[in-house]
Design brief:
Blueprint (H helix, E strand, L loop, with lengths): L8 H7 L1 H21 L6 H35 L1
Helix pairs in contact: 1-2, 2-3
Length: 79
């Protein structure tokens, strides 16, 4: 029995570009709304959570972009 091949990252990015865009949009939106929430004492806790979620979304987005670039450099070096 053979293990199924994992779809290369560049293939996923090419077939599903909305994932990359969606993560960036979610992260930036949460970060922006969290910033506004800091103006109100009652909403500061929600603002902290939105900052955290937004930062995580932007981190995943950036890591994905970095992996795509690294994979692209590896493909160029091989071919």
């Amino acid at each position: 029995m053979t293990l199924p091949q994992v779809m290369p990252l560049h293939r996923i990015a090419k077939d599903y570009p909305w994932i990359h865009t969606g993560l960036g949009l979610l992260g930036n939106t949460c970060f922006f709304i969290g910033s506004i929430f800091f103006f109100s004492d009652a909403l500061q806790t929600a603002g902290i959570w939105l900052f955290t979620i937004g930062s995580l979304g932007m981190l995943i987005d950036t890591l994905g972009e970095a992996l795509l670039r690294l994979e692209g450099f590896a493909d160029k070096a091989e071919g």
